[in-house]
Amino acid sequence: MMRVGATLFNQNYQDWDCYEAEERGEAVPKEAVKPDREVFLEELNIARIADATGFDTLWTIEHHFTPYTMVTNPLQYLTYVAGITKQIDLATMVVVLPWHNPVRVAEDINMLDTFLGPDREIICGVGRGLGRREYAGLGIDQGEARARFDESIQVLRELLATGRCDFSGQHYNIEGLRLRPQPGRDLSRNLWCAGGTDETVEIIARHDIRPLVIPTQSLGLSLDTARRYAKLHSEAGYAPGKSKLALWTYVAETEAEARAGAERYMVEYADSALRHYELLGSHLGKIKGYESYGAVQDALSSDPTPFLRGFFNEHPWGTPEMVIERTTELAQQFGVDEISFIFKYGSMPIEEAEQSMRLFAKEVLPEIKKIDTHPIAIRDAA
Question: What is the pLDDT of residue 199?
């Protein structure tokens, strides 16, 4: 049976112009037109709806300093969500490991697992991060990201598996460490990783960390990356496995209504990603471990339209029947065991997101749970 999740993003899209004006040194109002805290409080309703209507997992994300998404500590956020929900599993999309001490990440996961008890799961998605503003604001050299990530994933996996760690590296040296409270079980198979570069894919395939596909570029490029992971994972001697996939969606009773909402808000989301990651700049190709993004920036600087239209052109939106059909197609292509849907993004009002989500829960969710898939075949891997 396919697992289905919902995702909390907490975007304040309307504040992007003010944010960038302030960054340029211009005078701006002290507070956003829509206060950030209002975004947080209203989006908790997505958690409540997901818990009450049969979703399997509630995901959230980590970002810093911009209106893109404002969850600065996903495990702290999910600890609060654990208290206002009753049955749904909780997950991160992602904890950016180079921004954290991996021992503290393991402690926070272990604490949250304790609170959730035996009937609920914590799924820890991790990643390497891309945003220059975030690395700078946290005082971390982005050129060290790959090495920090590689060491962190090893430390984290060992602690989640055994509650103990001995490790010697460039950035972390750990001797005789023991977690308290003592872990109740092996959580290492609850560790998943997003990989947008060849470097990250190579690391997680080598360490048998399963892939979390968050398509910040086109779904076609994301599928190529998933196939590359499958090939490297097989070459490292591991059996094929399934992935998890994040998708943007908008569901309405008519195609025309869904098109209007999806086109507006998905393009806004793409615009927010373009601005947050500074994808129209030229800096990423000069940072160690991010060289492949240099070509992406060059292409987008020439014409950002494919990126801005990409989510609307590729992700599942429409009537319930249209969303079921497109989701089924993507689930089979990516060989997934879970899909997490983003219902609120861009400037979408919470009432509109709730309406789309409730229709999804009623008519789409039961059908998607029936989907059965197979892992990506190695013969298809690039």
Answer: 84
- The angle subtended at Cα 365 by Cα 364 and Cα 370, nearest 5°, is 100
Q: Closest by alpha carbon to 211, among 220, 222, 120, 221?
A: 222
Residue 101 identity (one-letter amino acid):
N
**DSSP 3-state of 317:** strand
Domain boundaries, the chain: 3-269+314-380
Q: 209, 241 in Cβ contact below 8 A?
A: no
Task: Tell how strand 122-127 and strand 164-168 pair up.
Answer: unpaired
CA distance 91 to 61: 9
Residues near 305 by beta carbon (within 8 Å), at least 6 away in sequence: none
What is the 3 state secondary structure string of 78-113?
A: HHHHHHHCCCCEEEEEEEEHHHCCHHHHHHHHHHHH
Helix (H) or strand (E) holding 339: strand 336-342
Element (H, E) at 226: helix 219-235
Residue-wise pLDDT tens digits, 44-71: 999 999 999 999 999 999 999 999 999 9
* Distance of alpha carbon 15 from the chain centroid: 22
- Work out the burial of residue 140: count CB atoms within 10 Å of its CB; fewer than 13 is exposed, 13-18 middle, 19 or more buried: middle
Cβ(323)–Cβ(360) below 8 Å: yes
Q: Given a cut of 70, is residue 382 above it in pLDDT? A: no
Q: Considering the entire predicted model, what is its pTM?
A: 0.96
CB 171 within 8 A of CB 143: no
> Which residue has 């059908």 as its token pair?
367
Residue 250 bridge partners (DSSP): 317
> Which residue from 100, 76, 101, 104 is spatially nearest to 90, judged by alpha carbons?
76
Q: Any idea what DSSP says for residue 30?
A: S
Number of H helices, E strands in the chain: 14, 12
What CA–CA distances, in Å, run from 115 to 20, 55, 121, 240?
Answer: 40, 20, 10, 32
The architecture in CATH of the region 3-269+314-380 reads Alpha-Beta Barrel (3.20)
Among residues 207, 90, 210, 112, the alpha carbon closest in space to that of 158 is found at 207
Question: Residues near 264 by Cβ (< 8 Å), separated by ≥ 6?
Answer: 346, 347
Respond yes or no on whether the N-terminal peptide bond of residue 181 is cis (omega within 30° of 0).
Answer: yes
